[in-house]
Amino acid sequence: MNIIETDLPGALVLEPPVFEDYRGFHLVPWAADFFDRLGLDHQFVQESHVRSVGGVLRGLHYQTGHVQGKLVRVVAGEAWDVGVDMRRGSPTFGKWHGVWLSAENRRMYWLPVGFAHGFYIPHGADLLFNLTGPYDPPSEVTLAWDDPEVGIEWPFVDDGHPTVSERDAGGLSFGDAATFD
Predict the structure, then answer these.
(1) Of the N and C termini of the chain, which has fewer Cβ atoms inside 10 Å?
(2) Is residue 43 within 8 Å of residue 132, measured between CB atoms?
(3) Which of 2.60.120.10, 1.10.1740.10, 3.40.50.1820, 3.40.50.450 would CATH assign to domain 2-17+26-169?
(4) Per-residue pLDDT in tens (0 to 9) along the chain, 181 residues
(5) Residue 125 CB: number of other CB atoms within 10 A?
């Protein structure tokens, strides 16, 4: 497994080894012993599958109760996947990192507890999430995807106005969003 460290401590881009031949390919997205060696929480309790049509932006989401680490990968299409450091004591508090994940590059994005997460789908995609905590709607927080203080540079393919849900359109400003101590 190739590990690419990001500018945000704890957030990693992972490139699993791929064994490919004329029949197709085989890869192992995660293995307990590998995550143990890295010291990563991998007690996954839930897997989610998300399909989005093109032009959709989802996020930025995180939970303050039943906190979640997330291992994200794309199995069809591509996504611009973003993590925002919401850990108040972190040297990168309020900073973001984005990475292209695709079925073609087979990269994964590991976001530990304390990160808001969102993604933009330019042309349609399927994403899989392995989560270390269950979905807990009462503790979910939505950070505004377009908050100027965070300043994420989204690579929109059309007019710069992605399709977002009502909940995501009403996300909190960075200054009003809950943080992790």
Answers:
(1) C
(2) yes
(3) 2.60.120.10
(4) 889 999 999 999 999 888 989 999 898 888 888 888 888 877 899 999 999 999 999 999 999 988 999 999 999 999 999 999 999 999 999 999 999 999 999 999 999 999 999 999 999 999 999 999 999 999 999 999 999 999 999 998 777 789 999 999 999 999 999 888 7
(5) 23
| Residue 72 backbone class (left: φ over 0; alpha: ψ -120 to 50; beta: rest) | beta
The residue to which tokens 């029949």 are assigned:
23
| Token output for 31 | 């293995």
Give the whole-angstrom CA distance, residue 1 versus residue 29. 9
Query: What is the model's pTM?
Result: 0.93
